[in-house]
Amino acid sequence: MQRILVVDDEPNLVKLLQYHLQQAGFEVLTGENGAEVVEMVEAQQPDAVLLDWMLPGLDGLHVCRALRAKGIHTPVLMLTARDDVVDRILGLEVGADDYITKPFSMREVVARVRAVLRRYSTEMGTEKSGVWQVGPIFVDENLYEVQVHNKPVTLTTREFELLRYFCQHADRVVTRNQLLLDVWGYEFSGDNRIVDIHVSHLRDKIEPDPKSPQYIKTIRRMGYKLVRFDE
Q1: Of 116, 85, 84, 79, which Cα lies nearest the Cα of 101?
Q2: For residues 89 and 53, what is the distance between their CA atoms, to the nearest angstrom?
Q3: What residues does each domain of the chain span?
Q4: For a FRET experiment, which of 26, 114, 199, 213 has its CA 20 to 30 Å from that of 206?
Q5: Does residue 221 come out as left (phi exceeding 0), alpha (psi in the -120 to 50 range) or beta?
Q6: CATH of domain 3-124
Q7: Cα–Cα distance for residue pair 219/1, rounded to 1 Å
Q8: Cα separation of 125 and 120, whole Å?
């Protein structure tokens, strides 16, 4: 599960960010003092940092500069009420990866965090092999672990393989024949209802309402699609 460090000296804002990020499937760490951020990043190794510009102890700019000086390339998203172009440029020049101006919507923050994480994984080529995060769904094939909204889910071997395949092809339609070939390992032989049965069982375990699925959508006459669902 990807871990986000939120650092802001406004407790109510921290709680709000923590709630929405957790609902989106992230583990959240929190801090309120700039002086502790570098140590927290080194110790906890978050996947990204949401960092307020104005912090007690050490402001966000100095924190970001200190992280980069230590060779720490963890993505940093700067939170600030400053909307001046010069301030934006300054934040980016010291190593921030994105700049979010207050007030902002929680949906925007979640979307920007995901975008930065995707970009970082692509640029650095360090995306963990065998680990997928699609909305609130987390799959780790190395630990054989599945979580939905931070809650462990127990799957059979075939259900796990099916969900893993959906995660690998998120937001793309996959046909039943594709699933038979790639998950079951054999060519279509006239009856692909076995796919529908396993998808139904998988929905029972991961969907809030299996009868009205939010994650694994049926695409009529084609197959299925795992969609990214942002609350």
Answers
A1: 79
A2: 13
A3: 3-124, 131-226
A4: 114
A5: left
A6: 3.40.50.2300
A7: 28
A8: 8
CB 230 within 8 A of CB 190: no
The low-confidence residues of the chain, meaning pLDDT below 70, are 83-88, 121-128, 186-192, 229-231
Alpha-carbon distances, residue 98 vs 49, 67, 196, 212 (angstroms): 10, 15, 42, 36
- By residue count, the chain amounts to 231
- For residues 108 and 102, the answer to whether their CB atoms sit within 8 Å is no
CB 99 within 8 A of CB 91: yes
Q: Which CATH code of 1.10.3720.10, 3.30.565.10, 3.40.50.1980, 1.10.10.10 fits the domain covering 131-226?
A: 1.10.10.10
Residue 174 in contact with residue 166, Cβ under 8 Å?
A: yes
